[in-house]
Design brief:
The complex is a heterodimer of chains A (120) and B (517).
Chain A: E1 2-5, H1 15-19, E2 25-26, E3 33-34, H2 45-48, E4 55-57, H3 76-81, H4 98-119
Chain B: E1 2-8, H1 12-23, E2 28-31, H2 56-70, H3 76-89, H4 114-127, E3 131-133, E4 138-144, E5 149-156, E6 161-172, H5 192-199, E7 204-205, E8 213-217, E9 231-234, H6 251-262, E10 265-268, H7 280-283, H8 289-292, E11 303-309, H9 311-314, E12 318-319, E13 333-335, H10 343-346, H11 354-376, E14 385-387, H12 404-416, H13 426-446, H14 451-476, E15 497-502, E16 508-513
Parallel strand pairs in B: 1-2, 1-6, 2-3, 6-13
Antiparallel strand pairs in B: 4-5, 4-14, 5-6, 7-12, 7-15, 8-11, 9-10, 10-11, 15-16
Helix pairs in contact in B: 1-4, 1-11, 2-3, 3-11, 5-14, 12-13, 12-14, 13-14
Chain lengths: 120, 517
């Protein structure tokens, strides 16, 4: 669940209020207000769309974790998406491997299962 | 407000419909309950699309294979249509979507990452002149005196104002029903469009084919890419006998469900493909976060897992369609994407992944163009109109407070509980059905609210309605076929029947001989 909007980074552009699919946030005087935490589904969309890297979503989707340390993680979601790069050039060039890797994992599991069956 | 085409919902299908309708010359309004670009399950995922080059032999072979999976319930003509439309239109997003390399000097089109895909659809819709209303949940459909659906009413969350939009054609693109399972992205997927359409007398089909489940860390639903090679352990470190993820007869999820009913299940992902580790965060940037933020190395440490139900999203059921342009039985009303039945292209099995994405794109394109054509023939808006919403708006008895979170837990349990993972029988359906009838009775008699509270209460009603249709349809189909698996009727029994389910106060089942069997 969303845990913090860091006042020293936030420029109150309210993009997070806008993009949140479950309307968790309200406009606020200095920074947006986390108004409906129970509606937060921990989807990280607010982090992804925050150009200031000012938002931290704690990892548990079932319970709030207000004391988690945000600093090592700020902006990671946006950088991993390549949204900080000009034109996002080439950042989806590995994407084609998703399907083959799913298949490879399934084959690993199938081979392992068969080998164990034979050894029983 | 008046428009030619009103689209309710803002996901994949809504995006494609909005673009198609605007390109056909219609004024288009998209009213989404969240934000068009992040709403629904696509933005957090990575939809692959059913993708076959327009070579007649290859297309024929793909359709034959898909018809086999559909087990007598798919329509080969619809399959051909969605292959064609997907091939033609997915690359048209190139001005807004940074398609990557195919590794052989070309462009990779068929699989797209959700957050960029949804952003691209929003940008393309805006560029085509579509009016997008975010945080504008719809509450009920409107019908005019000719009996035609003439728009909708809803509530704007940010301004706290009720809205009314009159339209010549209305498209429901509200997505599937995840029964509030916690599946990532699905909090908004409460089956709202299905409730609204049912109030207009539209039936549903394919509701018995589902649900399925996806594995995730117990504390957060994620995508499942690293799990296909997983090994599972109990809390005492004993390896569990879990058949591999692609084992026949849903054996993998059935075994996992059985073990989770008994106790904690831990996953070990150390056997995942070596090539995945360095690029996981580039391919699925949301997947590592729940681990890193807990100090867990997902490829080394064992961690507890949970099955998250996927409701009708990876299931097949939805609003039944009356023609090849996605019209419903209610004049002026169309249904697309996961709000509609996917039985036409997925049959008894899941269209999860590629086929459902091609369906969302194609049903959106087809309905968008047809709705534009139909609406441009109509000149004036006839008055008066009547709201069709009943439950949570006009209770049968005195208003009483409704405990929504308990209802949501009961609904998720009735559909997705670990005791139900591909192992149901008549007694289990009867128990769930009885519980759901009691909940519906309470809501129907006493549920009432206004404003944002009404939005929530209508969502609760839609969750319960969807669960009642699902249980009734599953109970009615006395066989096992595809995603519908019963312990008391373990075999498929011919002849192949299609089944419709309809009604709110009373749920009815109607069977007919399948056309394509």
């Amino acid at each position: 669940m969303i845990a913090q909007i860091l006042a020293d980074k936030c420029n109150n552009c309210a993009q997070c209020v806008n993009v949140c699919p479950t309307f968790v946030l309200d406009d606020g005087p200095q920074v947006p207000v986390i108004a409906r935490l129970d509606a937060c589904q921990t989807c990280y969309m607010c982090e992804l769309h925050c150009n200031q890297d000012a938002i931290f979503v704690a990892p548990d989707q079932f319970a709030p974790e207000p004391s988690a340390d945000p600093l090592p993680h700020l902006g990671m979601i946006r950088r991993d998406h390549g949204w900080d790069r000009p034109g996002e050039a080439g950042h989806l060039d590995e994407y084609r491997k998703l399907g083959p890797l799913l298949g490879e994992g399934a084959e690993i599991a199938a081979r392992r299962y068969q080998a164990q069956r034979r050894s029983v | 407000m008046e428009t030619d085409v009103l689209i309710i919902g803002g996901g994949m299908a809504a995006g494609w419909a909005a673009i198609a309708a605007a390109q056909a010359g219609a004024r288009v309004v998209v009213a989404d309950k969240g934000y068009m670009g992040t709403s629904g399950v696509t933005a957090m995922g990575g939809p692959n699309h059913w993708w076959v080059a327009p070579d007649p032999a290859r297309r024929k072979e793909a359709i034959a294979r898909q018809s086999g999976k559909a087990q007598g319930l798919g329509d080969p003509e619809w399959m051909a249509r969605i292959l064609d439309l997907t091939w033609r239109y997915l690359p048209s997003l190139a001005p807004h979507y940074p398609f990557g390399s195919d590794g052989a000097g070309g462009t990779y089109y068929s699989g797209v990452r959700g957050s960029e895909y949804m952003r691209a659809l929003r940008l393309a819709a805006l560029e085509a002149g579509v009016t997008v209303l975010d945080h504008h949940p719809a509450l009920e459909l409107l019908r005019d005196d000719e009996g035609r659906i003439a728009g909708a009413r809803g509530h704007a969350l940010r301004t706290r104002q009720d809205w009314e939009i009159r339209s010549h054609a209305t498209i429901l693109a509200t997505g599937g029903n995840a029964f509030r399972s916690g599946l990532i992205g699905s909090h908004t997927n409460t089956g709202d469009g299905q409730l609204m359409a049912a109030e207009a007398g539209v039936a549903l089909s394919g509701m018995e084919f589902g649900p399925s489940w996806s594995i995730s860390p117990a504390w957060a639903s994620t995508r499942t890419l690293p799990y296909t090679g997983a090994v599972y352990y109990d809390a005492d470190g004993r390896e569990l006998d879990i058949p591999p993820s692609r084992a026949a007869g849903h054996a993998h999820n059935r075994a996992l469900g059985h073990e989770m009913l008994a106790g904690t299940v831990l996953a070990d992902l150390s056997h995942a493909p070596a090539a995945l580790r360095p690029i996981l965060r580039q391919i699925q940037p949301f997947t590592p976060a729940p681990f890193e933020r807990r100090g867990i190395d997902l490829f080394r440490d064992r961690f507890p897992v949970k099955l998250f139900g996927e409701g009708t999203i990876r299931g097949t059921g939805g609003l039944d369609l009356a023609d090849a342009e996605c019209r419903t039985s209610a004049p002026g009303l169309f249904a697309i994407g996961d709000a509609a039945t996917r039985e036409l292209v997925a049959g008894a099995n899941s269209g999860g992944g590629a086929v459902n994405s091609a369906w969302a794109l194609s049903s959106g394109r087809v309905a968008g163009a047809a709705a534009a054509r139909e609406s441009l023939k109509r000149k004036s808006f006839s008055a008066p109109v009547h709201g069709l919403g009943r439950i949570a708006i006009a209770p049968l008895s005195a208003h009483r407070a409704i405990e929504a979170s308990a209802i949501h837990r009961a609904v998720d349990h009735a559909i997705h509980g670990y005791a139900h993972v591909f192992t149901r029988d008549e007694a289990s359906y009867a128990a769930s059905g009885e519980r759901l009838e009691a909940i519906w009775g309470e809501l129907s008699a006493h549920g009432q609210a206004t404003g944002a509270a009404l939005v929530s209460l209508r969502e609760t009603a839609a969750l319960v309605a969807g669960a009642r249709w699902t249980i009734a349809a599953a109970r009615g189909r006395k066989e096992s076929r595809g995603l519908h698996q019963r312990a008391d009727y373990p075999e498929a029994s011919g002849p192949t029947q299609r089944q419709l389910v309809s009604g709110l106060e009373t749920v009815r089942i109607h069977s007919q001989q399948a056309e394509f069997a």
